[in-house]
Specification:
Elements (H helix, E strand, L loop, with lengths): L1 H5 L1 E3 L6 H11 L3 E2 L7 H9 L7 H16 L3 E6 L6 H14 L5 E6 L3 H13 L4 H31 L5 H15 L3 H16 L10 E7 L1 H5 L7 H7 L2 E5 L3 H8 L11 H9 L11 H13 L4 E7 L3 H14 L6 E6 L5 H34 L1
Parallel strand pairs: 1-2, 1-3, 3-4, 5-6, 5-7, 7-8
Helix pairs in contact: 2-7, 3-4, 4-5, 6-7, 7-8, 7-9, 7-11, 8-9, 13-14, 14-15
Bound molecules: iron/sulfur cluster.
The site of iron/sulfur cluster (SF4) has 12 residues, from α15.
Amino acid sequence: MEENKKKKVSFPHMGTISYAWSAALRIIGCEPYVEPYTSKKTLSLGTKHSPEAICIPYKLILGNFIEAIEGGTDYVCMITSPGCCRLGEYGKCIENALRDLGYEAKYIEMQLYDGIKGMYDFLKKVSGTNNLLLFSRAIIVAITKAFMLDSLETKLSYYRAREIHFGDSEKHYKKALEIIDKHDTLLGLKKASKLVDEEMKKVEIDPERNVLHVDITGEIYVVNDEFSNQNIERELGRMGVQVRRSLTLTSFLKDAIIPKIFRKGETHLQRAFRLAKPYLMRDIGGDSLECVSDVVYADQKGADGIIHLSPFTCMPEIMSQNIFPAMREDTDLPILALIMDEQTGRAGYITRIEAFVDLMRRRKRKNLSDNTAKKQNVEV
Ligand code: SF4
């Protein structure tokens, strides 16, 4: 046990996921090693040692691993799944790349599509023990934190679009993250949930502000990772746009990890099969099916637009982008497709987002005045 406590274990970043896995590792007696958040340095390390045409999540994950190993971690852990895209090969390629670079840290995989069993097997390997009770606690606490983190991000988006002082909601959001991080028991998290709400309510907002509502979809990594999407949600918030994401860590957990008896309602993937049907009949890998269905969902829910984020050369998302023109025949919902890679320049990126927001505002105004005119005609 003493030896386990000394083990430093690290995962790659993706949004706020580190808060969830850190808790699980602490509970089983390991020391989470959270490498610095993904940065330009991470990108250049990953790019330097990756095949040129591989997708950006691979490069950033490799960069995270290199930084973690150089920072002194003993284990680097990777989430893997079969998948019909390159994700199925990621694990082996990363392991080989690290070995070729001469890094000593142990590489461990967590098989996502083995569900809870995959998580148990992973915790067993990493801790070197087999304590079912402790592992159950670790999994439950990590999943509970993941739900709290997603709900906190939804709140952040609401407050950010309405805040009176720029940056205020993010300041309180960071404090709320610290609150979540401090608690590793279910009772503690229950208390933390109230404190988090209170913290976010401190943000001074203009509740009457006329905000736009935009859905964000795309490949799960770039949708949830603020470095690779150049913090698109902050930019949109600054422009008075509230964002909704269906592709989240918890939507993924519901589909891949949480057993049926413990979840309520339709999952994102189930919804995707239902809504994407007229355009895409089957899962073609990555998050393509979900992306196509998210456009239908955004339209049905009256969103002002949808933004699709995809890594350059991502095969499933190239397919989604090729389906959007057919979807545009059935809806006038504005769709903006953005492709991300290490070459994506910030100025051009922001200009495209600003132009899109402008288009959505004009469309909303026009729809409002058309509706008013229709109403007046009926009354006359
Ligand atoms: S979904 Fe796209 S970005 Fe993700 S691993 Fe597959 S090809 Fe790469």
